[in-house]
Amino acid sequence: MSAPRTTALSDAPYVPSPEESDAIARMKELLGPKGWIDNPADMEGNLIEDRGIYHGRAQLVAKPATTEEVSGVLKLCNEAGIPVVPQGGNTSLCGGSVPFEEGNEIVLSLSRMNKVRSIDPLNFTMTVEAGCVLQTLQEEAAKADRYFPLSLAAEGSCMIGGNLGTNAGGTNVLRYGNARELTLGIEVVLPDGRIWNGLGSLRKDNTGYDLKHLFIGSEGTLGVITATVLKLFPKPRDIRTAFCAIRDVDAALELLQRARAESGDSVETFELIPRLVIDLVLKHMPDCEDPLETRYDMYTLIELVTTRDNDDGIEERFEGILGQAMEDGLILDAALAQNEHQRQELWKLRENASESQKIEGASIKHDVSVPVASVPTFYAAAAEAVHKVDPEARIVAFGHMGDGNLHYNVQEPEGGDTKAFVGNWDAYNRAVHDVVVSFGGSISAEHGIGRLKREELAHYKDPVALDLMRTLKAAIDPKGIMNPGKVI
């Protein structure tokens, strides 16, 4: 296992075979003048991933507008042996949505497939194409007086196909589940160009293997998701938000279970935020403010929702839960949002955590999950393991405590040697991931594996599970054209 390095491109261009050149020419004809890009400068945005670690090359960026065009592209690629990198909004943090440096692959962008095919308010479903931006789907659901709860920082640019490809999570998993739980059906184009229409909107269908789950979370290694049927929910009528200083992580766990039980399980969000995150956000984001006058070591951002109109009881329930927790010493202080503006001000402290880290300097990120009940003991054990690598390393561990998913990031020491810090990349990964696995956790909770964590997956995943994954890959994609070198 080696630390990722920013990749450099060779000066030598890739020389396609006659079969590849013919396939590319036929692809261009199939897609029409608006359906492809082959100028390197124009392709650039499709070739580099969000953090700039990986920078690849491609023969072509194909931009099909229909499922049939996706089918035609994959059929041509399969016949000519051209590797395909499916791509949505290209917001991957693991290098899964960009090509390698050789230049022999094509990028298949779903950005033109952005139609909402239908919304069925009575069935609480919407059928949409893979290139729809997540925020757009939230807005379209709201217009129908419904709610699509998948929410994450990149929602203004990420696309639902990529969300399904990585089984995205976000801030509302506690109440609604991740992308897998929000999906009833999918449409997929297989590597040989065949189209599987699995766009069922049934809640119950026990007719054999549930095939959609093979493709959700597969990161484009088995086929291309072109459309999906998503679950919708009653639209929240009121949201109550509090930013609470808590005694410690154990207190957060106790507060979480109390809030779920005493609110009728209406907790939508429960985010754990240490003081260092607040300090970094206040340091680098001038429009953010500390909502509490006193500094504390640990905080949680908690939200309750109700779908009832004029539900006066939600305020009483929320304040009752927080008040009792304060009497019992779990909460030390709290700020309650009185309107939507104040709510957004509190959310800025959480949503700017990653950007503030980037400005602060080098960090080594770990998107991990453990059983919710294990979060406090994991939190302490991982800190001990990290500080054995470097006692001065800063731990920026925050995130979705409600579902056990923490972004357990290690920030370089203040005023430290960045090169030396990054040189310990493998040691930090091993320290954190060993502890994660010892708690029965996962080394990738919601960001996927991609290229970044491929070797880590091979190290930690059960060998039988890996063998099953390879068997499925070989059966569905025997020529190995779908996103090769990613995941497995």
UniProtKB/TrEMBL annotation:
The keyword Nucleotide-binding does not apply. SUPFAM superfamilies: FAD-binding/transporter-associated domain-like, FAD-linked oxidases, C-terminal domain. GO terms for biological process: respiratory electron transport chain. Keywords: FAD, Flavoprotein. Residues 54-235 form the FAD-binding PCMH-type domain. Its cofactor is FAD. One of its GO terms (molecular function) is FAD binding. Coiled coil: none annotated. Gene3D superfamilies: 3.30.465.10, 3.30.70.2190, 3.30.70.2740, Uridine Diphospho-n-acetylenolpyruvylglucosamine Reductase, domain 2, Vanillyl-alcohol Oxidase, Chain A, domain 4. It comes from the Bacteria. InterPro entries: FAD-bd_oxidored_4_C (IPR004113), FAD-bd_PCMH (IPR016166), FAD-bd_PCMH-like_sf (IPR036318), FAD-bd_PCMH_sub1 (IPR016167), FAD-bd_PCMH_sub2 (IPR016169), FAD-linked_Oxase-like_C (IPR016164), FAD-oxidored/transferase_4 (IPR051264), Oxid_FAD_bind_N (IPR006094). Belongs to the FAD-binding oxidoreductase/transferase type 4 family. PANTHER family: BLL6224 PROTEIN, D-2-HYDROXYGLUTARATE DEHYDROGENASE, MITOCHONDRIAL. This is FAD-binding oxidoreductase. It comes from Nisaea acidiphila. The lineage of its organism: Bacteria, Pseudomonadati, Pseudomonadota, Alphaproteobacteria, Rhodospirillales.
